[in-house]
Amino acid sequence: MEVCSQLPVLPLDRPVPQHVLRRRGAISLGTSSALFGGPSPRQLCKRRGGVSYNSADQAVLYLHLLGDVKQRGPGPSEPVRGAPHSHVKVDYQRFHCHQGPVRPGARGLKSHHRRLSFQRGLKSRHLLQRPSGPQHLLDQVYNCQVQCMLDKVDSWDFDIFMFDRATNGNGLVTLTFHLFLQLGLTRLFRLDPIKLRSFLVMVQADYHQRNPYHNSLHATDVTQAMYCFLRQPKLATTLSSCDMLLALVAAVTHDLDHPGVNQGFLVRTGHHLAALYKNSSVLESHHWRCAVSLLRESGLLDHLPITDRLNLEERLGSLILATDISQQNRYLARFREHLDREDLSMADPSHRHLVLQITMKCADICNPCRVWRLCSQWSSRVTAEFFHQGDVEKKHGMAVSPLCDRLSDSTAHIQAGFIRHVVEPLFREWCRFSCTSLSHHMLAHLQTNLDRWTDPSQHPETPP
Q: 166-186, pLDDT tens digit by residue?
């Protein structure tokens, strides 16, 4: 094998296996490179490079130096297309961006605005520009830490924060792709692995990473929780493969393109999404439409008949719309009524879909049912997002939304009320439906965490 001597030798993260080198195609290697051409969500100042080889000349290995990836400072704010009401100008692309002072005479600063999903063209993503020639999915080689964690992905005490660090912020892509393989969905539905990877990369990129809570890490956590629920006997033995596919896709996309504010804020500021969806389930409807857009853009389900695709998209919407917290009592009442009458049949497709909706709701708000070291971190994140919205409302002379005033609300007060009025009623009914060790484990954590939030001696209040 001949190597170009004038090109620099790159330090690689790991040795390239011989069976990979014998394949035709290309390999991208580096200390911070994202998989399959996806943009790295964290701009690290580390060297990146690539190794490629031509199928016509397999005796030569080419090394390419791509240079350093340097982080640029934020530029001045620009108005958002389709701006809210005239008296409140909110830049949703930079909503949770805390900018520091710009040094006088600073050069090379460019504005990198994150375009919302509905503002981008379908052909604007470089990762979908696939090279000509046969496509081969290279073997995935995880490092030891990530692989060990994935082996325990069905554990309720799975540390999603450690997993996020181990995957360099690519937890959503890594975990969800692994679960598709684990459940055999890629084989059953004949999914193109390249298209699946592209879809997940786009999903991860369309979450606002500056949101303290509603970001791709939350979606990854919900997806892991959904997998735990799908493994419970009542679901594992009755759900179809189509149900499981929908459950995972709904979990990974349920908060797609979340702006970091609640529906009330969008309505009061006259946001165009509120007008588009007539002030009803505004965020959930937007998440659903964004998910459908990415499914179509990636072509993940293009090989299925059009009627099947439309049916899957419709059912996906009903799962995502079920996460609307304002509609919880309606779903819970139906679920409780079936449990009281003991007529819930998993052989009935409508009953099975209701159970999937309840499962989606449980996965979405399961943070208080986690062990305290995880629960407390999520609580601080969601409170920070609430308080930031309250700060913006004060800045624009608006009435502060409930639970969003950092001067009168606290993390302990918010979490205690959320557990008592929202989480506990839902998980009590879930335990009636699926009375397993996991259900009792979750309720035990829920009670322990509630005791800590309500007992000042166990949890002294600190700013989020």
A: 998 999 999 999 999 999 999
Cα–Cα dist 173/204, whole Å: 7
| Residues pairing with 28 in the sheet | 50
pLDDT of residue 155: 97
- Assess contact for 122 and 297: CB atoms under 8 A: yes
Provide the token pair at 212: 């303290």
294 with 154, same domain?
yes
Determine the pLDDT at residue 456. Answer: 78
The verdict on 216 and 360 lying in the same domain is yes
Residue 352 in any domain: the answer is: yes
**Domain final residue, candidates 299, 332, 364:** 364
Distance separating alpha carbons of residues 269 and 88, to the nearest angstrom: 6
Can 272 be counted among the known catalytic residues? no
With 90 as the cut, is the pLDDT of residue 331 above it?
A: yes
Question: Do 229 and 163 belong to one domain?
Answer: yes
Q: Which domain holds residue 350?
A: 143-364
Per residue in 196-248, pLDDT (tens digit) is 999 999 999 999 999 999 999 999 999 999 999 999 999 999 999 999 999 99
Residue 386 within a domain = yes
The Cα 438–Cα 417 span in angstroms is 24
Q: Which of 22-26, 434-438, 448-452 is the least confident region? A: 22-26
| pLDDT band of 421, cuts 50, 70, 90 | very high
Q: Are 266 and 341 found together in one domain? A: yes
Q: How many domains does the chain have?
A: 3
Options 96, 178, 214, 445, the catalytic residue: 214
Q: Which of 313, 334, 364 is the last residue of a domain?
A: 364
pLDDT at 18: 54
